[in-house]
Q: What sequence folds into this?
């Protein structure tokens, strides 16, 4: 997969161990890539080190083994090229909405004067629909609005890629849906490369082009990569469930999370496993034109 | 709800007034001159020596509330006079004390805030300095006085040094605590934005720790104001502490009570100013 041309983000042999070397690593020998302009989701149960992977990609944490190559260069720390949207929004509470975004903008372009910074920040406040709330402090905003500010802050530095750590998990369902739509719209408009961590299956199907499935930790591995064969322009939150491929993909993911993520070692024993040559599965296509041998996915449970 | 709150405030104020009246009333009864109590209680020679009133006990040295009121009024009418080195207006004395406190406090802040930053940011420095802080913190600031007088050889500067040494600890500890407690995610924001260490210190850590630092300052200024009175009693010359000691030598209890009231009021104002400053830098989360 990674012969001549590397993807924008290339994760190569990543392991992370906490504590002394005798301990089982949280995850081990991960190999995957995220292409330019791709929306990639990583899905798995809590405890499999999802956030740690994102922190390593962000440069906030160092892997025990392996490396992350971005744009053909190994990362060795945080960078303005990789913007992070944090799970708990992480806004600076003593700054206003404008202040929070301006802080990021001045970090990116230190030579800009105040007016230019404000103009630039205002553009991104408008992009996330918060015009009129520039002067408010985070404490005066609802959870959804705070996360919008987080998104605006990340986008305002015009990064090469966005890293999102369960950005919507703390929000109520209605707000979450609205924000998902907006992220979809913004990513389509800006052609942004996104790596997102989630444990929400529907969120992954709605947003992601490819979904990386992780087994349970400790010693978590990537089981396979699911290609979302539903084209982006056919994915709408309101009628996602009417799409012919939807249930096939969803069932495949749920089946993985419920059963296979626990017992993946058994699968390895039966079928073998090469972490560098992961299986690419397209459950959606099987549903549209099922080949003869394919086991109906809706029945789920394995014997 | 608002009406209830108002009425609560009103009732509290009424109760305060009542307590005040009771205290003044009791005080008045206790200090009332007892009419015709033994005129020949003491030896006439002694009476001549100490003054008739004192010797007969018809009038105690303890003033009545009215005496104190009159003394207070007299001081408030003319607080800034200077009639020789031992007779200065109470306003002047308070200004001396306040000047020393603010100077010592400012010097302490200049040392404590940067040092506290260092301690809060570096576990190494924290562990290295911790034994010194633990041993020196509980020492009464007045214990430093002889050492200060011997090394500095100037009583005015010595009292400023004592203020410095007593204000430094709460500010140091609170700054270190505030800086060490800055939320990891805010620091991560700063790291992912590639913000340099100085900009991080001033734009993220300082505002995040500011409420805790201000609390330390508020504690410090309170302690400094407590200590200045004692320090000035020791070094003498000027200041409200010296005034109190001087009036004790004059056995002018009315002046002492007046000074106590004013010390309390100035302390209250200092505390309120710091509380107001703390409110300015506090952020809701």
A:
């Amino acid at each position: 997969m990674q012969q001549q041309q590397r993807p924008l983000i290339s994760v190569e042999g990543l392991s992370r161990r906490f504590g002394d070397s005798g301990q089982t690593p949280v995850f081990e020998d991960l190999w995957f890539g995220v292409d330019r302009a791709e929306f990639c989701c990583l899905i798995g149960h809590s405890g499999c080190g999802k956030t740690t992977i994102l922190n390593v990609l962000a440069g906030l944490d160092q892997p025990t083994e392996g490396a992350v190559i971005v744009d053909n260069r190994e990362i060795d720390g945080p960078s303005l090229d990789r913007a992070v949207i944090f799970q708990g929004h992480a806004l600076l509470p003593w700054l206003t909405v404008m202040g929070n975004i301006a802080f990021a903008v001045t970090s990116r372009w230190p030579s800009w004067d105040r007016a230019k910074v404000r103009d630039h920040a205002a553009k991104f406040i408008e992009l996330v629909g918060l015009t009129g709330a520039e002067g408010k402090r985070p404490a005066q905003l609802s959870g959804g609005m705070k996360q919008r500010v987080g998104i605006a802050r990340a986008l305002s530095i015009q990064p090469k890629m966005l890293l999102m750590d369960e950005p919507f998990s703390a929000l109520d369902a209605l707000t979450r849906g609205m924000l998902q739509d907006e992220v979809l719209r913004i990513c389509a408009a800006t052609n942004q490369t996104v790596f997102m961590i989630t444990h929400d299956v529907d969120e992954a199907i709605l947003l992601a082009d490819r979904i990386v499935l992780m087994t349970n930790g400790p010693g978590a591995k990537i089981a396979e990569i699911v290609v979302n064969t539903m084209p982006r322009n056919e994915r709408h939150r309101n009628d996602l469930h009417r799409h012919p491929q939807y249930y096939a993909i969803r069932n495949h993911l749920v089946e993985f999370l419920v059963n296979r993520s626990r017992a993946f070692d058994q699968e390895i024993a039966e079928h073998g496993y090469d972490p560098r040559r992961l299986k690419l599965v397209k459950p959606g296509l099987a549903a549209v034109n099922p080949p003869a041998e394919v086991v109906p996915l809706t029945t789920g449970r394995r014997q | 709800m608002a009406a209830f709150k108002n009425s609560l405030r009103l009732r509290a104020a009424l109760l305060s007034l009542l307590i005040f009246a009771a205290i003044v009333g009791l005080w008045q009864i206790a200090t009332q001159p007892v009419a015709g109590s033994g005129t020949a209680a003491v030896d006439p020679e002694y009476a001549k020596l100490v003054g008739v009133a004192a010797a007969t006990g018809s009038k105690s040295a303890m003033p009545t509330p009215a005496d104190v009121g009159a003394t207070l009024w007299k001081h408030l009418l003319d607080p800034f006079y200077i009639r020789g080195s031992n007779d200065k207006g109470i306003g002047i004395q308070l200004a001396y004390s306040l000047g020393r406190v603010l100077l010592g406090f400012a010097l302490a802040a200049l040392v404590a805030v940067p040092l506290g930053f260092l301690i809060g940011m570096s576990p190494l420095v924290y562990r290295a300095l911790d034994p010194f802080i633990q041993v020196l913190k509980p020492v009464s600031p007045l214990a430093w006085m002889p050492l200060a007088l011997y090394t500095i050889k100037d009583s005015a500067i010595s009292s400023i040094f004592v203020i410095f040494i007593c204000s430094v600890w709460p500010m140091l500890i609170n700054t270190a605590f505030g800086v060490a407690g800055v939320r990891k995610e805010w620091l991560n924001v700063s790291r992912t934005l590639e913000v340099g260490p100085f900009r991080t210190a001033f734009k993220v850590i300082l505002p995040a720790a500011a409420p805790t630092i201000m609390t330390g300052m508020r504690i410090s200024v309170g302690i400094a104001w407590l200590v200045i009175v004692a320090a000035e009693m020791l070094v003498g010359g000027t200041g409200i502490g010296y005034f109190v000691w001087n009036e004790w030598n004059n056995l002018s209890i009315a002046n002492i009570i007046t000074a106590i009231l004013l010390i309390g009021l100035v302390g209250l104002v200092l505390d309120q100013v710091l509380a107001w400053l703390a409110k300015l830098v506090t952020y809701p989360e």
